[in-house]
Specification:
It comes from Nonomuraea guangzhouensis. It holds the Pfam family DUF6907. This is DUF6907 domain-containing protein. It is a single chain. This protein is α+β, with helices and mostly antiparallel strands. Among the domains are: about 100 residues, no CATH class; about 100 residues, no CATH class. It is about 30% helix and about 20% strand. The protein contains 6 helices and 13 strands. The strands form 3 sheets. Strands 1, 2, 3, 4, 5 and 6 form a 6-stranded mixed sheet that branches. Strands 7, 8, 11, 12 and 13 form a 5-stranded antiparallel sheet that branches. It has a two-stranded antiparallel ribbon with strand order 9-10. Strand 5 and strand 6 form a beta hairpin. It is elongated. The N terminus and C terminus are likely disordered.
């Protein structure tokens, strides 16, 4: 039964580079009668057996085992492992697996190589070097700009970031660490507070400060990048941004949600029955549900 399973798996024990139809004792004689590869041979063929019209690849050594590869029209491509009794030590198993994969790789020819002209290779290398130089130079400049801002703020001489004069904050912007003269142009952005909605039917996750199990939260906020004409709505679950949308797209999402809720309540599309409870004022200073941008109260 073990031999049958190996043959089905394409790993033929005790047959070095020959199909199962050839006994081991005839292997040496057969190899001595092989010829050089023929025009119709497989690209990996190094010895051709004219009697059985068999293509034979170069063997790959794997410790005490040798892995061969052959092709015969009626049997297809086969990988052969000699002296394989079904079990090997772990380390040797890794070598054997790599040898098998190497033989399999022979059957997938590499795409034709395209020669790159020297002038193109030089231009690519020069361009890559300029990118690296620019990145390093900007990194040093950004670090120095932050250091200068910290020093001037400590001395009481800090001035507002110049870029805010041309791209001032929106009324909903909460300012923040990215509103300094040392902020890299790619990091300049305006952010709102986040509206947090616990997703209580999802699997709880570990949150910090202090560590505890809590439902994940969907965080909705506004973000406008430097010099963009309008903000986007950002959708986050935990620390991962899962989507963002234009204001029009966000409005379409809101209408779609209201329509789904109405359908679930058995009403006409879009006619939503409000929840049957009154919101209460929130006296928790750390609550993020009642920011002025969105609502003056926090749900009970």
């Amino acid at each position: 039964m073990a031999s049958t399973n190996k043959e089905k798996a394409g790993l033929v024990s005790d047959h070095l580079t020959r199909p199962t139809s050839q006994p081991l004792q005839h292997q040496e004689e057969t190899l001595s009668n092989t010829t050089i590869p023929q025009p119709n041979c497989k690209p990996w063929c190094v010895q051709h057996d004219p009697d059985g019209d068999i293509c034979i690849a170069e063997n790959v050594e794997a410790g005490d085992h040798t892995v061969g590869l052959s092709f015969q029209a009626d049997e297809g491509v086969q990988v052969h492992v000699d002296r394989f009794d079904g079990t090997v030590p772990l380390a040797e198993g890794g070598h054997l697996a790599n040898a098998i994969l190497a033989q399999i790789a022979r059957t997938h020819p590499a795409p034709p190589s395209v020669e790159i002209p020297p002038r193109v290779a030089k231009a690519a290398a020069d361009a890559g070097g300029r990118v690296i130089d620019t990145y390093v130079r900007e990194w040093h400049a950004e670090i120095k700009a932050h250091e200068n801002y910290v020093t001037s703020r400590a001395a009481g001489t800090a001035e507002p970031a110049a870029w805010l004069a041309e791209d001032p904050c929106d009324v909903w912007c909460v300012d923040g660490v990215d509103h300094t003269p040392g902020t890299h142009p790619d990091d300049r952005a305006h952010f709102s507070h986040s509206v947090l909605v616990p997703l209580k039917t999802m699997a709880p996750i570990v949150v910090s400060y202090p560590e505890r199990w809590e439902p994940p939260q969907l965080a909705l906020s506004l973000e406008r990048k430097y010099r963009e004409k309008e903000p986007r709505v950002v959708f986050q679950v935990g620390d991962e941004t899962v989507a963002w949308s234009t204001l029009t797209e966000a409005e379409n999402i809101a209408h779609a949600l209201l329509g789904l809720i109405a359908a679930a309540q058995g009403l006409e599309w879009g006619k939503v029955v409000p929840l049957q409870h009154e919101p209460k004022a929130c006296d928790d200073s750390t609550c993020m549900c009642h920011e002025q941008l969105f609502a003056p109260t926090c749900g009970s």
